[in-house]
Amino acid sequence: MIFGLFRRDPRRTTIAALYERVATASRAPGLYAGLGIPDTLEGRFEALSLHMILGLRALRELPPPADEVAKDLTDAFFRDMDASLREMGVGDTVVPKRMKKIAESFYGRAQAYDAPLNDADEGALALALARNAYGTEAPATPLARYALAADQGFKSVDLSTLLEKGPVFPDPGAFASGGSR
User: Fold this and answer.
1) Domain range enclosing 110
2) N or C, which end of the chain is more exposed by having fewer CB within 10 Å?
3) Residue 152 lies in a domain
């Protein structure tokens, strides 16, 4: 009976692997060097948020149990954010307030990116990404092209492939030379 406490939960292991793949994609050097996302704490949050949003959009389009996977993936993201705050020395009394701000930021970005991604509206997405990722009004056209390509690429992936191989994001370097920024 007690040994059951030490067994790995296969579902949790699968979600952890999926989250790790998304997080790894968000740390691709081309996002920072080629597409201009600032290599700062805020920039890394923006990159991770964008990749999470793209992954969650892909799951949203798939049949059940993709909705449960999306919920578990979102939970993994917020657990990671909580752990990161604590590693940075944020006190226990402040963590909930910071987590609330992180959640508001994340869901605000998801909402801002959703319509342009649905409509494949490069211009609107470039402006939304510029405001969030760069803190400017100059369109983030190469980053928007990258996000649109990733979003489009997910349309042909089924849940089992997504869980086994993870989301496959395009090479950011392929988008670095096009457009402004």
Assistant:
1) 9-175
2) N
3) yes
Q: Is 1 inside any structural domain?
A: no
Instruction: With H, G, I as helix, E, B as strand and everything else as coil, classify residue 137.
Output: coil
Q: Which two tokens stand for residue 15?
A: 């979600």
Which tokens in the block code for residue 102? 């992180």
pLDDT tens for the chain, 181 residues: list them: 455 555 567 889 999 999 999 999 999 999 999 999 999 999 999 999 999 999 999 999 999 999 999 999 999 999 999 999 999 999 899 999 999 999 999 999 999 999 999 999 999 999 999 999 999 999 999 999 999 999 999 999 999 999 999 899 999 999 996 544 4
Total residue length of the chain? 181
Number of domains in the chain: 1
Task: Look up residue 40 and give its DSSP letter.
Answer: S
Residue 113 lies in a domain: yes
Structural element, H or E, at residue 128: helix 122-129
